[in-house]
Amino acid sequence: MNSLLLLVALILSSSFQDTHRKLKVSIYYEALCDDSKKFLLDQFYPAYSRIGSNLLVDLVPYGKATHELINGEWEFQCQHGLSECVGNRYQACGLALNKCQDKQIEYINCLMGSVNASSQNTLEKCASKLDVPAVDIMKCSQSRRGDQLLAKYGDQTHKVQPMITFVPTIIFNDSFDSDIQESSLKNFLETACDVLQNKPDGCQKKNFLNTPDETEIDDFLGSVKNDDKGELDHVSEDKERRSN
Ligand SMILES: *[C@@H]1O[C@H](CO)[C@@H](O)[C@H](O)[C@H]1NC(C)=O
Ligand SMILES: *[C@@H]1O[C@H](CO)[C@@H](O)[C@H](O)[C@H]1NC(C)=O
Questions:
Q1: Which domain holds residue 222?
Q2: Is 118 a pocket residue for ligand 1 (Cβ < 6 Å)?
Q3: pLDDT band with cut points at 50, 70 and 90 for residue 219
Q4: Taking Cα atoms as reference points, which of 45, 234, 73, 210 lies closest to residue 150?
Q5: Helix or strand or coil: residue 77?
Q6: pTM of the model
Q7: Given this model, what pLDDT does residue 9 score?
């Protein structure tokens, strides 16, 4: 019995130390914002798969919205319109319904990587990543609780100093730093590894090389432009096929 208690004490104290050794990363973003998508999908998610256990992630789905209590009801305006508020609510509610960080990241990555992060189909597809029934997330997002969660994220967003002007805004250990912000957008893994005191294996230099540098991005953009045309061709093919 005593040894069991000792074991419990050891586990508790080691997880306590872990929380203190972790780098807290807050991400202020919004559901329908291209820059948020790009950061979460191309920078954050791949880095998380390497050093996630060293990060304490604080996702804040609100961005450049506003909220106001009118006659006891929360009213929101979102930067990309009403459906963005729906998307932000799906995220706020999902994050509240399962606190497991790894599952949260899978869920958010699934939503942000979908064509429409505000659609019910997307929610149904992504809820399984969180192990929460989509209907529970939906209910929350249409209820007072959804409003309150979103308003709470709004208050947190509005407290940031200096005021957030760019979405996504990335903050380490609760204090905004414009160098961290800029370099996180370019290479999040390298930026996080830079400030982590005990470098995990995921911080090996060779991992940074996977991130495209400036010239590769230009090449990529060039190829996207060409691909765009390709995609349009596919669309018209699809239309033809459908009308046949
Ligand atoms: C995304 O889904 C929402 C909810 O169904 C809808 O209101 C919105 O128009 C959709 N957006 C696009 C770009 O299709
Ligand atoms: C944030 O805290 C972590 C853990 O204490 C530490 O390793 C890191 O250096 C800190 N980073 C910054 C930018 O303060």
A1: 213-244
A2: yes
A3: very low
A4: 73
A5: strand
A6: 0.80
A7: 55
